[in-house]
Specification:
single chain, MetI-like fold, 2 domains, 15 helices, MetI-like, transport, BPD_transp_1_N
Length: about 325
């Protein structure tokens, strides 16, 4: 138990260090974007004096190091700052201004809803198909499943999205093509409008998880304890589900966690295609208008989600490893 706790604490410490380094990269990269917010809102006819005034009001005239530590201090106190695009310059930072947290909260909630719907479809489907592919390996079903997964992995997200729109919204109007959800929408209607982006993401992530499940189980089928289970007369399905699958959990958990992280950090293209009001759509819109605080906050949320889910995968893999849970 002590060895497991030590490894978990090491992983947590490494995650915090990684997040700190990533925050530096995010801040430098975002502030290196071409263009200037002050010039963007004032237009081409802006005078240098007016541009300098807005930059001073926004703190953009401060050295990069000073701005980074001010931003980091705000992150540590959960103060994401004020959105440049929603500022009330007549009452800077006061009434009429919208904070980054107020902008991101509903968008993040929408993205989490989409990720949850996708995960509820994709994870059981991928594990089930992976078990069947391992059970009937080298058969027509296995070859068809592998062909389907390779096609899904090879196809860009926007292509898959437009194919689903064509077949499920245009030729056969089963689901709406636009996911214009809003706060207070009934759950059933919200779910219906989220189905096409959820199915698109399902096609993208199911393939990777299914192939990993299949490979992990097949690697264990030649193990002595699997041979013993077969000699006892157990059915092939029972051998895989009861004996092979529990010992294949570590790699499966890792790939599931990576794909769940993708559902939060990699939804930008899908949200743009379906006009889904999630954090990915907000990120794209904020980049267009150089809303630096929102862009930085979105990037940090993406990085934190990815690191957190990877840490969770590492910890669950450690806990599911019998050699660590039951040392000699």
């Amino acid at each position: 138990m002590r060895s497991i706790l030590k490894i978990v604490l090491q992983r947590l410490g490494l995650g915090l260090v990684t997040l700190f380094v990533v925050s530096i990269v995010i801040f430098v990269a975002v502030n290196s974007l071409p263009g200037d917010f002050a010039e963007a809102i004032l237009g081409q006819g802006a005078t240098p004096e007016s541009v300098a005034t807005i930059r001073r009001d926004l703190g953009l005239d401060q050295p990069l190091v000073v701005r980074y530590f001010d931003w980091l201090k705000g992150m540590l106190t959960f103060d994401l700052g004020t959105s440049f695009a929603q500022l009330n310059f007549a009452n800077f930072g006061g009434a009429g201004s919208v904070t980054v947290a107020e902008q991101i909260a509903p968008r993040l909630s929408n993205t989490m809803f989409l990720a949850t719907v996708t995960a509820c479809i994709a994870v059981p489907l991928a594990v089930f198909l992976g078990i069947l592919a391992a059970l009937y390996r080298n058969t027509a079903f296995d070859k068809a499943a592998n062909m389907f997964t390779l096609s899904s992995i090879s196809s860009p997200e926007f292509f898959m999205a437009y194919v689903l729109i064509l077949f499920l919204a245009v030729l056969n109007p089963v689901f709406p093509s636009l996911s214009n959800i809003f706060e207070g929408m009934p759950f059933g209607e919200r779910l219906e409008k989220s189905m096409l982006p959820a199915l698109t993401l399902t096609l993208v992530v199911t393939a990777h998880m299914m192939r990993m499940t299949r490979a992990a189980i097949i690697n264990l089928l030649a193990s002595p304890y699997i041979e013993m289970a077969r000699l006892k007369g157990l059915s092939p399905m029972r051998v895989i589900v009861k004996h092979a699958l529990p010992n294949a959990l570590a790699p499966i958990i890792n790939v599931v966690a990576l794909n769940l992280a993708y559902l939060i950090t990699g939804v930008v293209v899908v949200e743009v295609v379906f006009v889904y009001p999630g954090i990915g759509q907000l990120f794209v819109d904020s980049v267009k208008i150089r809303d630096i605080p929102v862009v930085q906050a979105c990037c940090l949320i993406f990085a934190a989600a990815y690191i957190l889910l990877n840490l969770t995968a590492d910890i669950l893999s450690i806990v599911s490893n019998p050699r660590l849970r039951h040392p000699k």
